[in-house]
Amino acid sequence: MSSDPEDDALSWEGDDALEARRPSARPAKSESVEAPPPAPADAPGEPRVTPTAGVAEQAGVAEQAGVAEEDEQGIGTVSLLMFGILGGIYLLYTVGWFIGGAGMQSKAMFMLPAPLYVASLWIAILAPALWFAASLVLTRGAKTWVRFAALIVGVVLLVPWPFVVAGGGGVL
């Protein structure tokens, strides 16, 4: 800390410790990298190792580690927001299938026996949640656009038509 009272007003106790822990804007170059000693030139059949080859090899390892660090950071904010929006759509689809299917039950009983209708109703109710989970699990290693494509295909295919057409009343 300086002895100037104006500088004291603009700083807090312990600012120096925070500055020491703050990462620098540019990564510091490692100067402790030691190249392996060169092999004797008269050794037949062995490749000669130069100091620059060892440094280049270590730089390649560092670049691979940097790529791995980027992969471990996770998904971005926009992707996370889109997954949330699509998950909400699938949740609304589940509710829509429940309401639309329950409202249509009395009118569909003349075509299907009750156990078959109830089984198909539960399959329809669970389909959006199963599609969402399957899309996320099966495209885990894929690129983000592939995951979104799988989810958008499900949004198009799993529209709760009994709810959309009849407004939940089941009148078809």
Automatic annotation (TrEMBL):
Residues 42-51 have a biased composition (Low complexity). The chain crosses the membrane at residues 80-99, 119-138, 145-164. Residues 1-17 have a biased composition (Acidic residues). It comes from the Bacteria. Keywords: Membrane, Transmembrane, Transmembrane helix. Residues 18-32 have a biased composition (Basic and acidic residues). Residues 1-51 are annotated as: Disordered. This is DNA polymerase III subunit gamma/tau. It comes from Microbacterium bandirmense.
